[in-house]
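Deliverable D5.2: sample structural annotation.
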Amino acid sequence: MDVSVLREAGLTEGEAKVYLALLELGSATTGPIVKKSGVARCIVYELLDKLAQKGLATYVIKEKTKHFQAASPSGILDYLEERKKKIEESSRKIEDLLPKFMALQKSAEPAEARVYLGFRGMISAHEGTHQRLSKGDEYLSIGVPEEQPEHYHSYWKRDHLRRIKEGIRCRLLFHPKADRKTLKNRNSFKGCEARYMPFEVNTPVWITTYNDITVLFMISKNPVALEVTNQEIADSFRAYFEDMWSRSKPFK
């Protein structure tokens, strides 16, 4: 069985494998659990203990030997609810400390270039539009790829709602073969205008620029974003964008 859902719920791969093994085995000692799950014998007790702490595993002692079994699968929902509460509590603490963190960041010299890895890294790179732009400001994106994974689209839809609340505007130039539904969706958000580029450029990279920041985003098996802080570079890409925008047509 695929363990990805359990991993998304917060379990490690090893914990997920052991939990699934327990579900199938019922009550079992560590030997069958190791054989069924495929985890190393030297860490099985550690994984079982972590599952017990999460309320997902229990044990009884029979003839001086521990027999482990999975807690009710509904316990996963209880664990997720508890995890949600902890995340919300941590979020509130971070929110209270954010001004101090921002002050520390501003006191340091800005990085000339910064690399962000993975989808979460790309989100962090885009987060700069919220941190550095004010109401009435705008960011520009050019070369938005024709295809993006569905979880990218889900993120952008949520991000546009946040952008609207902050009063930030944006203009987006998409690959000419991008789905019309995507452009229709982006244009449905206040303060966003999306168009097709006037000609086709086949590349997985798109560029976002604002203030003195230029960010190159690349969708691949291992997504990456490169953020460059330089006014001349930002001005160059802005001029490139405006030229392309002047040759594009409003979306209909």
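Annotation notes: The chain has a mean pLDDT of 87. The two ends are 46 Å apart (CA to CA).
The annotation will be released with the project's public dataset once the embargo ends.
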